[in-house]
């Protein structure tokens, strides 16, 4: 039914942060010591999978920019939200709702997004499930990544409520955890997005089918903290947009299951702002 990542050293640090450092690059190509930027990735999947998929892309970008980009994530989405609120990441890849919140404080500014796409939530069930409609889930416990996971949770819960479906949300930390839980029969259904479903292990994916898909919205934002110099943001934007124009660039994009990036502006997320979601207001400083 429709309504639908030179050689790297990976060091696992406290708090599920992973640092990416180039090894064996000629001294003339090494980034200056004071030109290091953290790059936070929303933990829709495990830290090890995120590192594997994003490492080649960040390596490519840091070589193009002549700066060091350090991969960072968090143990789960709520902790990622707290780190965004604290401004811990220089650059961050965050969900659409996160952007509408953390563009207000600490003032992240979007500069890129996945090209020519809209983000939609999906609800998956086991492939052999007798469930055929949302109404078959009335009264059920349903798995979601986290309360403020935008498409997989916020949009999907909204659609369920709009259909008059009573349910108990169960938050299981990540998209991959949702898919595994449903495949194992721990929950009859769970929320996700097509990109992470396509990225999950084939033996898990093949056990699932999509029951429902939400309406589409502006996708995840690549955003920069205000402390990052504007020329660095502009250079990173250009390097990301150029990825789709070369074979090497497309190879770096392939693990992420996207075809390219395009420049973005703050107003691109006005469609999400119009939903008036207020789940993370407690992470913002008091209004002056």
UniProtKB/TrEMBL annotation:
Keyword RNA-binding recorded: no
Keywords associated with the record: Signal
Gene3D superfamilies: Periplasmic binding protein-like II (3.40.190.10)
Pfam families the record matches: Phosphonate-bd (PF12974)
Signal sequence, renumbered to the chain: 1-21
CDD domains: PBP2_PhnD_like
Name of the protein described by the UniProt record: Phosphate/phosphite/phosphonate ABC transporter substrate-binding protein
Naturally occurring in which organism (per UniProt): Thiohalocapsa marina
Lineage of producing organism: Bacteria, Pseudomonadati, Pseudomonadota, Gammaproteobacteria, Chromatiales
């Amino acid at each position: 039914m429709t309504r639908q990542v030179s050689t790297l050293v990976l060091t696992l640090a406290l708090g599920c942060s992973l640092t990416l450092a180039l090894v064996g690059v000629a001294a003339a190509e090494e980034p200056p010591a004071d030109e290091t930027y953290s790059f936070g990735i929303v933990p829709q999947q495990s830290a090890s999978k995120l590192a594997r998929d994003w490492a080649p892309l960040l390596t490519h970008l840091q070589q193009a920019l002549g700066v060091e980009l350090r991969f960072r994530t968090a143990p789960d989405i709520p902790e990622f939200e707290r780190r965004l609120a604290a401004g811990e990441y220089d650059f961050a890849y965050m969900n659409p709702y996160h952007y509408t919140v953390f563009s207000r404080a600490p003032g992240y500014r979007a500069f890129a997004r996945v090209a020519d796409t809209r983000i939609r939530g999906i609800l998956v069930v086991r492939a052999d499930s007798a469930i055929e409609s949302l109404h078959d889930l009335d009264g059920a416990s349903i798995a979601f990544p986290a309360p403020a996971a935008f498409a997989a949770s916020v949009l999907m819960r909204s659609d369920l409520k709009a259909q008059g479906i009573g349910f108990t949300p169960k938050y299981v930390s990540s998209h991959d955890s949702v898919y595994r839980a449903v495949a194992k029969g721990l929950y009859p259904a769970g929320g996700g997005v097509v990109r992470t479903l396509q990225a999950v292990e084939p033996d898990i994916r093949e056990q699932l089918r999509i029951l429902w898909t939400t309406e589409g919205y502006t996708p995840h934002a690549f955003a920069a903290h205000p402390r990052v110099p504007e020329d660095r943001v502009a250079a990173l934007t250009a390097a990301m947009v150029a990825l789709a124009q070369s074979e090497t660039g497309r190879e770096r994009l392939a693990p992420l299951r996207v075809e390219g990036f395009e420049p973005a502006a703050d107003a691109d997320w006005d469609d999400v702002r119009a939903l008036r979601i207020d789940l993370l207001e407690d992470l913002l400083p008091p209004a002056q």
